Amino acid sequence: MKLNNRRTVFxxxxxxxxxxxxxxxxxxxPLILGETFHLDESLxxxxxxxxxxxxxxxxxxxxxxxxxxxxxxxxxxxxxxxGTGAVLLMNLxxxxxxxxxxxxxxxxxxxxxxxxxxxxxxxxxxxxxxxxLMPDVTAKPLRSKANAxxxxxxxxxxxxxxxxxxxxxxxxxxxxxxxxxxxxxxxLVSAIMxxxxxxxxxxxxxPRLAAENQELEQAGTTARGARCCPGQSSGPLAFSWPPSPCxxxxxxxxxxxxxxxxxxxxxxxxxxxxPACW
Length: 278
Fold this sequence. Notes:
Layout: H1 5-11, H2 13-36, H3 41-68, H4 77-83, H5 86-90, H6 92-102, H7 106-124, H8 127-137, H9 143-168, H10 171-174, H11 183-203, H12 206-228
């Protein structure tokens, strides 16, 4: 059994898009709240903590909902596609930011907070399904290695954002400015998210891969059971210690030179050979 690295990289594109978004959100939104809307650190901290509070409810809810979902696209893919709607809301933020900087008003501040809340809710719809996609299409023995690749893809998403921010907004360019226009950065991160999810959708056929993985795991369970339980005694007096992992009793071997018995071997002072599948 060998991990399909190429397929795992494609699955990890969902996590790449999520990481790129959150890296930008955590770095840019506090600057907008503080420098454009002039919120103090306490209010900025409360707004920035909202995503963690929402995550307590949204991530378990949409994770469980995707578990019960059955569609031609699979269980997780519909949520990942729907979550890309966050891209549209995301690009409203710099527009409201620029508008408030040009002509401040309470209504624009309220609109910004409302759009920000809707954005956080939309992003929360597909974070859990995106993370759950890898185990659905990857066999259990390979999931640790696959998880490392998924985390690597998340790191790539964060690095892409950092590279864009460094190129678009070097300190020499932004120093002394009364207002910074973040529209180019938001547009490029949006493009990264859309391209990543589009490639995932075109390359990962979730229903087929999930069915193949389920069949593979069932075949592996059957094979392990066949190796584990050959030739067990199942008579009414059969007794085994330790208990057989296969669910039926097996007679414990007797020490050399003594008659066979169904009594436990430890009662006769001899442990006997260990069970083959214990």
